[in-house]
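Support request from a user on the community tier.

User writes: "When I paste my structure tokens into the form, the page sometimes reloads and wipes my input. The last time it worked, I copied everything first. Here is what I submitted, just in case something in the input itself triggers the reload:"
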């Protein structure tokens, strides 16, 4: 479908989806109740080196206790329920210095992982959950570096009715060079349609989310091609300190 019919499709869907206009906060600003941590090389629930913590009302990715990154890609999952049709809103802010040993591409780089596999099913050495990632990037002081992009760990998506050829596809957002709070929203219609929104502007739309791509874990091989209709939400740690706040959701189911 072209972009016009994509928006028409979203409008039609909205008429058939029941609405819950109340925001539910996924993060209470006090502790990590309802969240589970999975860091590469460690068992589920092991918050290695206190990577994820709560400070001053924010959910913080911290590397204060690290000497080097050593491929400790991490994710913190909200596991109280899976989500299918929803409107997610949060704010993020990069801070501090990129950790020694982390990949160069991970400077001011994090993500919100949508439709995640159950963290209980992640392999011990798995870098990223099968998911559709809303990639969060900060500017580096010069040149364009958009945020609210789409990356596809273990997944494929379509953009303008064609399979995305690259692992990450840029949005049309502006570049946020300063380490200020940035508000991002995602509007999800199961596996059919996802919008990325910044400052009330839709900066990226994609469709047909399914298992695929180049990073499918061995225990997901038999699911290649299956639609990702629902899943968990997680936040990412991949080498640069970042904070999250006002993490809230409206469900349409």
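"...and here is what came back when it finally went through:"
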């Amino acid at each position: 479908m072209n972009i016009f019919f994509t928006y028409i499709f979203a409008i039609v869907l909205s008429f058939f989806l029941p609405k819950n206009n109340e925001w539910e906060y996924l993060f209470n600003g006090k502790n990590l109740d309802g969240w589970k941590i999975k860091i590469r090389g460690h068992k589920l629930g092991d918050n290695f080196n206190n990577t994820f913590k709560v400070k001053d009302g924010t959910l913080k990715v911290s590397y204060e206790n690290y000497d080097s990154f050593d491929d400790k890609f991490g994710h913190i999952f909200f596991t109280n329920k899976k989500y299918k049709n929803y409107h997610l809103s949060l704010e993020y802010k990069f801070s501090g210095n990129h950790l020694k040993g982390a990949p160069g591409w991970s400077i001011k780089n994090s993500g919100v992982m949508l439709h995640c596999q159950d963290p209980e099913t992640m392999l011990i050495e798995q870098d990223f959950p099968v998911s559709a990632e809303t990639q969060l990037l900060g500017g580096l002081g010069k040149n364009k570096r958009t945020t609210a992009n789409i990356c596809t760990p273990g997944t494929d998506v379509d953009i303008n009715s064609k399979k995305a050829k690259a692992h990450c596809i840029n949005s049309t957002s502006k570049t946020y060079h300063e380490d200020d709070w940035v508000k991002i929203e995602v509007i999800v219609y199961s596996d059919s349609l996802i919008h990325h929104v910044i400052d009330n502007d839709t900066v990226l739309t994609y469709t047909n989310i399914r298992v695929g791509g180049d990073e499918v874990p061995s225990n997901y091989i038999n699911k290649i091609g299956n639609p990702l209709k629902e899943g968990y939400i997680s936040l990412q740690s991949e080498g640069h300190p970042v904070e999250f706040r006002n993490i809230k959701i409206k469900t349409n189911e």
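Agent notes: The reload is a front-end session timeout and is unrelated to the input. The chain has one helix and 17 strands. The chain has one domain: 3-251. Escalated to web team.
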